[in-house]
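Lecture notes, structural biology module. Today: joint structure prediction for complexes of two components.
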Amino acid sequence: MPLDDEAVAEIYREHGPMLRRVVWRATSDANRVDDIVQEVILRVWKQAPDAENLRAYLITTARHLIVDQHRAAGRRPQQAQLVEIAERDSALDRALDQVLVEEALGRLQTNHREIVRCLYYERLTVAETSVRVGVPEGTVKSRAYYAVRNLRVILDEMGVTR
Amino acid sequence: MNPGSDDLHVLLGAYVLGGLSDDDHRAFSEHLRTCVPCQTELGQVSGLPRLLDLAGPEGGPHLAEAAAGVAAGLPTEPDNERVTTLLAEVSRRRRRRRTWITGLAAAAAVAFFVGGAWLGPRWTATTPPTAGPTATSTLPTTHVEAAAVPGSSVRVDIALVTRGWGTQLDIDCEDMPKEGELALWVIDANGRATTAASWRATAAGYSKVTGATALRPNEIRSLEVRTGTGKVLASART
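The predicted structure, tokenised, for the full assembly:
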């Protein structure tokens, strides 16, 4: 049976903002954001999936809706010749993955995120990061370890399994 | 595990992200050759750098100093409004489903009405013989006939449909009084009686109404159809 109103509202409150960001960044179309997000939640309502991983289910559903709409738009004659569907889909997948990675980084604990920024994006050494952050090198190493593990878990939760 | 391998194990993070000193890098590489758990774990996280690259050279908006810009350009009307819109749509689609479900239940009731016929002035609790598993498996239904009390000739068929919220009572009556109000009363195990439906008599003496009670079918001890003045026309006991 479908979920009751309260359950639907709760899913929306918990996952709506994340879905809106993801759809917005993947489509850059403010008019479609609400429609797509609403449709995603409605599908969850209707199917009441016994999803162990609701977040991944929501994101996968959003991905399908966006891809479907893209394809539908591509069937319009005046747009058909622009790009091959496969090429466009892979560009879209890439855009979605980008958004999801950014979202995952945002969900990382602050002190773990800081370590990822220093070590990966700024290419600092462990010693330099230790000075920058003001913690011992051993702490930098262990935070890096947990940051990597947690990031993997968060991405898995979002259905990004690559 | 080798002595001190816990310390080495933890180097996996910086090994993936970069930034290890030459000594640490060498030590971990050496450790990795023989440590199966580390090899497994590395296999799980070795794809991360490629994913991190997707977020761009700065790591995306969450790593930028001003993280507020994440949803820049996204219209931000009050969230409650969107919840309201969403629930309105849920309600609209639910109505569509409900129409269909009611139609199905009614069809099942009618099928029994015709197929089962009247079994006499006694309580019968049967599964509708003609309603297939489609109707009964989703909505467990018990049909009863309320026996007319002496001096009354009414015929009442009631379908007790198990619902999440209690029991739906689909009532079919024939040969009823032609005027006045009628009501279905539900009596629980403690003798407490509550009205589950009330309706106005029709000139044809026939009516088909649906009532509801919070009681579950097994909590209902008896059912009574009464007139507006409280006279019992028919009753059924479990």
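Point to remember: DSSP finds eight helices and no strands in chain A.
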